[in-house]
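Work package 3, deliverable 3.1, input record:
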Amino acid sequence: MCGIVGYTGGRDAYPIVIKGLKRLEYRGYDSTGVALAGPSLRVYKKKGKVASLEESIVRKELGGSTGIGHTRWATHGEPSDRNAHPHLSASGQLAMIHNGIIENYSQLKQELLSKGYQFKSDTDTEVLLNFIEEIKHNNACSLEEAIRIALKRVTGAYVILLIDQDMPDTIIAARKGSPLVIGVGQGEHFLGSDASPMLEYTKEVVYVNDYELAIVKPQELVLKNLGNERLTPYVQKLDIELAAIEKGGYEHFMLKEIFEQPKTIFDCLRGRLHAEDGTITLSGIEQHSEALQKANRIVMIACGTSWHAGLTAEYIFEECCRLNVEVEYASEFRYRNPVIHPGDIVLAISQSGETADTLVAIENAKSKGAIILGVVNVVGSSIARMSHAGAYTHAGPEIGVASTKAFTAQLAVLTMIAFKIAQLRNSISPERLSLLLHELESIPAKVEKILSNIEPIQQIAKQYAQARDFLYLGRGYNFPIALEGALKLKEISYIHAEGYPAAEMKHGPIALVDDQLPVVVVATKDSYHEKVLSNMQEIRARKGRVIGIVTEEDQAAIELCEAYLAVPAADEMLAPLLNVIPLQLLAYYIGIEKGCDVDKPRNLAKSVTVE
Ligand code: G6P
């Protein structure tokens, strides 16, 4: 979490840095700050979002063609002006921003305190900065050398950007575990946590790797490892258009991204799914055909919404591939001693490709000899680069903090991977596969149909927005969809919501049911339909308020609902791709009813680069 931006070149740095920070606010928005170099080193920072900083510094001196900026998701120290980045070193000579956590900061702080250092903030960042300055003084060395020495003592994750008052056209950057992209322009360079701050200026970027140091000047980019050896920057061409990261007329990114889903699912299937000849092309997966044919099990690791995509896929994999599947929270997996054998298949699922827990879990599995297949959205991200192979989800940049289009794209890719493996293992009949491939092809149009009738969703949102709690129920393929629906509501509207397997309701949650409790039941037609209808009866018998997600014209289900949202009929294996859409919209419109900042819900961040 935390977003970092930097610029050095011939233009004014401030507007570029501020604009870049706005694009990176999805990574955290507890406080914002900038440092500008020129005749003097100036730092401006403020608690709150980028807009608060802008308002507070209208009359300040904002010139200078080198600058760094930070948008924070607080870890060490409450959100406040004084804990905001950039931090200044004790001498006032250096300014630094940081994304990540310095785990041994308290040990370093003790060392510095014993030498008489005083701290203005509660952050680990200020400790690292002064540690660097102390080394620079003691060793009478360059800043670059001091950073190298300091980083060898540091444990944890970081991207740091530093400016030295004596080198006003230089930014020094280093990374381990948190993302850093450098944009290469004509006589100028841009730095960012992702490529979005630099999109309108350049498409040429360098992804900095762990344990690398970049010395960035307008005309020069020097990349080194921590051993001071020069590396050749690998310049790649970005394939993202500016429009992809703008709202394009929608009130919020979340709404835009929900509405993009017919296209994102289509893009994800394009060139891979060939329903007519009954084949799927997934070149990354095909590289490991032999291992997939022989595999006894697949382990999926992910966090948050990506974990829900994995959980939904588990049902599909088991059904089609007759494989044992385990879906693990990366944060749990990393601290266990999981049983992984050489050649085991691990599927890592991540929108950002930067989630710290998922990254470490992958390292863990890799060290035990697993084959890592990544299902990742952000091209060139750490997880994409760490995986042996994989399949991108091609959903385009997702800016709204609550994941929507990335989820359906993950599910579409995972479904194709399952079908591919099933074909390799001969565990599905060609007739059934052909039917499923045709059905999958028809999903974008069905999503489009759901999105063409949002009025009932808006009405239901109005009707139920004041509820204190929500229960979400689903069974089989739709159980993870109930979890995802509840997660969306919690994230966006701050209403407590719980997802549960429908049949488990009677073992606990039924005690919560009264005439106040809305119970969202995902009740589309599938093998468990009759059972789920019985659960709806049970809720009604206790005066619970059933909101059904039902198949169009399913009168039996509709009659059991106080309110309902209809979706087109689909094979039960693919229905989750449809059923989640009204749940995303319901959360969105309830959030709007409640006046919440749906794109930037409190306390959350999109890319969780701390554990
Ligand atoms: C955060 C985001 C979620 C996301 C999760 C995992 O919590 O707010 O939307 O699902 O991280 O992120 P990843 O990028 O690995 O999918």
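The chain is about 35% helix and 25% strand.
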